[in-house]
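# step 3/5: fold
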Amino acid sequence: MTATLTPAGRADAPASAARDRRAALPRAVLRLHRKALVVGAVLVGLFTLLLLGSLLWRSLYSPAEIAACGTGAGCPGLNAYETAHTVYWSLLNQSQNVLLLVPLVIAAYAAGPLTARERELGTHHLLWTQSAASPVRWLRSTLALASVAVAVGAVFLVMVFRTAVAPMEGVWGFGGWEPGGYAASGPVLVAYCLLGLAVGVCAGTLVGRALPAIFVGVVGTGGLLVAGTFGRPWLWPVSTVVTPFSEGRGAWPSPGTDWPKGAEVRGQWLVTGDGGRIDPASCTAPTGGIEACGVRAGAETWLVEFHPLSHRLPIQLVETGLVLLLAVLAVGTAFLVLRRRTP
């Protein structure tokens, strides 16, 4: 009987080569998109510096010092505080709008440079060959690394915004139910950023050309953002207020009296005796206004449906789950299309 001895190194060679190929794939993806990561990190750092820097500048002046300073125009402490507060207020206000654009920027990059550009230039086959990876593995690795980067960046932006908005929470619409403040104060922004990535990758895979894919990705993500804004009030059961209807405006329901300030009102109606609802907006001035309109229709009560601030977190969690489900569907579509197109 003859025994064949196989060197240990030769037996381990295939496994070692496979590990090297698996490790080379993430490195290749990072090397290809390192400039985008650097630019993204710089922009996040600049956003943080401006927002938290203005908050720090404002906090240098204590309320006691400002109160002691009075309102005299010759008080330098008061003038300096007003300047710091104005800068802080302006940056905080604009940051709500800027953060709503982040999912659109991510969708544009995911649709163009991340997926469609290589196909349009014809370099995708070279990339797959050099990395010794199938197209599906290449997309899976790209999407995994991009998802981690997007999630970490979005979570950091939410933490920065929540820190900056804390002194102004609920004042002039900051935080609360304003679309930008609502999204940036919880997990919804993270979910929409991941949705932008998923929709962009799906658009890039389906279209295969950079500029049309960017257009489709941005429009698709923007449409879902708008749909989320309008559908948000219907994601959680509302609180209601019912008050008697009278012709005197002083007895009509009002915020801060019949429902809490800062609540999001889903709708107000005049309710007749048989349960019919009349939208006050349909009662125009030529017909005598709301008073005459309610009397003619036989209105008996006011009905107000609203979401108090305590509903914001559960609504955010429900919306986050739905948005992430859409992201999974978009990613699944991209992989399905890629598998069918790959020989």
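# step 4/5: annotate
The longest strand covers residues 264-272.
# step 5/5: archive (pending)
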